[in-house]
Description:
By secondary structure, this protein is an alpha+beta fold. Helix content is 28%, strand content 31%. The protein has helices at 48-60, 66-69, 83-95, 118-129, 147-150; strands at residues 10-22, 26-29, 32-35, 39-40, 98-108, 136-141, 154-165.
Amino acid sequence: xxxxxxxxPIRIGQGYDVHAFGEGDHIMLAGVRVPHSRGVLAxxxxxxxxxxxxDAMLGALALGDIGVHFPPSDARWKGADSxxxxxxxxxxxxxxxxxxxxxxxxxxxxxxKVGPHALAMRQKVAQLLEIDLDRVSIxxxxxxxxxxxxxxxxxxxxxxxxxxxx
Length: 166
C-alpha cells in the first residue's frame, strides 16, 4: 500500500437487513412504531431500517457489521430498541474522527405503507445521528409482488451512509 497517496476525507458504507413477519400488531421502522397487521421475527426490535443504517456506518469504517457489535446470541439485546445500536455506532465513528454527512435509507415492502410515516422516521434518524433533517432520506419501494417481500412474508431495508472527517 502506498501511504503517500492522498484520499478525500470521506468514507461510504452500505447496509442491508431483512426480517420475516410474525405475530404482532406493529413494526419498528427507523425508530418509529408503525401499525401493521404483523410484527417481525427478530432478537431485538427488528427495525430493518436502523439495522441497515448501522451496517452502512460500520462498513464505511471497516468495523464489521451489526452482528459483531450486537450479537443475537447476547441476551442483553433481546427485544432491544435499535435506536441504541445507532447511537452506539454514531459514538464509535465520532471517537475515530468521523461524522455522518448524509444517509439514504430505502425500505422494501408491499405493506405497511412508509409514506405516511417517512417524516417522523427522518426526524428520528436525524436526532439519533445529531444531524440536520435535510441530510436524512427515507423512502420506500415495493418488489412488485415478487419474492418474499412481494408475497408479504417479510420486510427489508438498504442504507447508504456518507461519512466525513470531523
